[in-house]
Write the structure tokens for this entry.
Amino acid sequence: EPEVTQTPSHQVTQMGQEVILRCVPISNHLYFYWYRQILGQKVEFLVSFYNNEISEKSEIFDDQFSVERPDGSNFTLKIRSTKLEDSAMYFCASTWAPNTEAFFGQGTRLTVV
Amino acid sequence: GNSVTQMEGPVTLSEEAFLTINCTYTATGYPSLFWYVQYPGEGLQLLLKATKADDKGSNKGFEATYRKETTSFHLEKGSVQVSDSAVYFCALIMTTGANNLFFGTGTRLTVIP
């Protein structure tokens, strides 16, 4: 069964460093997303991406964040200068159409120290 | 705005007990409703869904009915197994407009033999 894959599963980084979280969405999907979950809190939407551009973003997704689809398979989330409060589980998801159920990866746990 | 309120956990049950996890929602329009499950060490998996009022979603013995009059989508299972131990997330997405999921906080279920 096709699945969304994320790497790495766990990343530890020092405050102020840049990190790139990687995702390979399901191959025939067209819409891509990043969500995050701070420990003990809700899963929150960050950004959606379609047709090589951001289609929606939340207020969490500020100038420190960027997304890119550098080739036909990868979808990345970059955090330019990490802060302690960026520590969270980051989930990538994809869908074949808008406003439908999303298929999620297993998540990347980011720890900023 | 759109939001999901989910029963606080954790929930601990004995094998073969009846499970209910409450979920209510607030939405500005007509949402589709979902239950996602996260097994230890894995990503979010769609468990079941319902796209309109009075629909019943079901999968793996779990059921939830979309109740528009009470804005609820409670998850039930008649007889839980140890393998059902996981975190369960209620979520909604609007059928038009904003193309992102709104999640509840998640409920951790532990089933003991």
